[in-house]
Design brief:
The protein is 77% helix and 0% strand. It contains three helices and no strands.
């Protein structure tokens, strides 16, 4: 059974808001010194948050937040790779 366009929009909107909560939550946890910015949970929250915002922004065809969150995602991915001692050769 195919979901309606309205249901799809609600799901994508929820994914975007969850992304917002993840990024702001990670920031708040780090500011209040509950987690370190090098902590994998902080980095993971930023990865999840940026993916949610990318999905929501792509759905709306709003490319500025897409660009911002792709950069955010790349930074977080590099950070998580460094936390596992994975080196990139460029």
């Amino acid at each position: 059974m195919r979901s309606s366009k309205k249901t799809d929009n609600i799901i994508i909107e929820a994914i975007g808001w969850l992304g917002v909560v993840m990024i702001i939550g990670a920031y708040a946890l780090s500011i209040f010194e509950l987690i370190a910015i090098s902590d994998r949970s902080y980095i993971g929250m930023n990865i999840a948050g940026s993916l949610g915002l990318i999905a929501s922004s792509l759905h709306k065809k709003d490319m500025q937040p897409v660009a911002l969150n792709i950069v955010w995602l790349i930074i977080a991915l590099v950070a998580i790779m460094r936390s596992y001692d994975i080196t990139l050769v460029f």
